[in-house]
Amino acid sequence: MDLCSQFSGHPLFEQPIASGIHFQISFAPDLLPRILLPYIFDCNSFYGFDDTCGYRNPKDPAAGRKKAIIEVSSPNIAKEFHAGHLRSIIISAYISKLYKSMGWDVVNVNYLGDWGKQFGLIAVGWKGFGSKGLLAADPLSHLLDVYVRINKVFKIEEIEVKAARDRKEDTS
Question: Can you tell me the distance from the alpha carbon of 157 to that of 9, in angstroms, rounded to the nearest whole number?
Fold first, then answer.
């Protein structure tokens, strides 16, 4: 039996059309603008924001509001800022604005966590690569250079430790 023939008519929709495995449903072109456009005009510039146009309790505007915490970009503070961090900032700002537009109470948090390893590497790297003169001349560039250099040493050590563990497991 044809699924389209089973569709009960509704004034908001046109009769559906079967197209292969697809079932196309369209809004009635006359009715939708008569319903939607006056609402949009009434809301004016607040259209699209959930807590406008009389949907909230006027005596307690915060009643029933959902809450969200959005973590914005948390760049690695031991490295230079780059485009990947900017992308994360744009995405988190978009998500935050989206939730705010739907009437949520939104708190944005920039959590500078996971920095212990980076500063530990800089502290260890300072012993081998640090220079008070270079630090005084250009602190950010010098600390970045120390971090990059000690990170290369650390990566080599990580590879060697993993290889030693693998050898130990093979002999067990």
Answer: 71
Within 8 A by CB and 6+ apart from 72, the residues are: 88, 89, 92, 93, 96, 108, 109, 110
Among candidate residues 10, 59, 66, 79, the one labeled active-site is 79
β-partners of residue 108 are 70
> With contact defined as beta carbons under 8 Å apart, do 66 and 101 qualify?
no
Beta pairing, strands 22-24 & 17-19: antiparallel
Catalytic annotation, pick one of 82, 97, 117, 152: 82
Prediction pTM value:
0.42
Q: Is 79 a catalytic residue?
A: yes
Nearest to 129 by CA among 96, 106, 154, 112: 154
Contact indicator for 110, 72 with CB cutoff of 8 Å:
yes
Q: What is the pLDDT of residues 71-107, one digit of tens each?
A: 887 666 666 677 777 888 888 889 998 888 877 889 9
Q: Give which of 116, 105, 74 is closest to 91, Cα–Cα.
A: 74
Task: Note the pLDDT tens digit of each residue in 21-65.
Answer: 888 888 888 887 888 888 888 877 777 665 555 445 555 556 667
- Based on the residue annotation, tell me whether 168 is a catalytic residue of this protein: no
Can 142 be counted among the known catalytic residues? no
